Amino acid sequence: MTNADIIFTAGQQLAKEGKIGYTGKVFEAVDAAGTKIQVKETEPIHTFATWKQMGFAVQKGQKAIARIMIWKYAGKVNEETGEEEGRMFMKNAAFFSLSQVEAIA
Predict the structure, then answer these.
(1) Number of domains forming the structure of the chain
(2) Three-class SS of residue 20?
(3) Of 75, 50, 92, 69, whose CA–CA distance to 1 is shortest?
(4) Domain region containing 23
(5) Which of 31, 42, 47, 56 has the smallest count of CB within 10 Å of its CB?
């Protein structure tokens, strides 16, 4: 499962629990059985770092809406060969919703 899949699934669950809202948009997807289904788009959730890259700051005092295990890459360049060496591992990350951030002026 990719990070996008993990975050999408977590977002759907958070919306069902009433922790985040929906955008009002609906899109078509295919479930595990191959059947086309209608899926409501949820409010976006991202990590602190991702919101910052997108030009937003988490509002002061806000607590993460969810903690989700996602894939992280750690790599370094081998000084002898010049090749990059790395590994993937699961990391528990804090996620914030759109309603918890504000645009950086």
Answers:
(1) 1
(2) coil
(3) 69
(4) 3-103
(5) 31
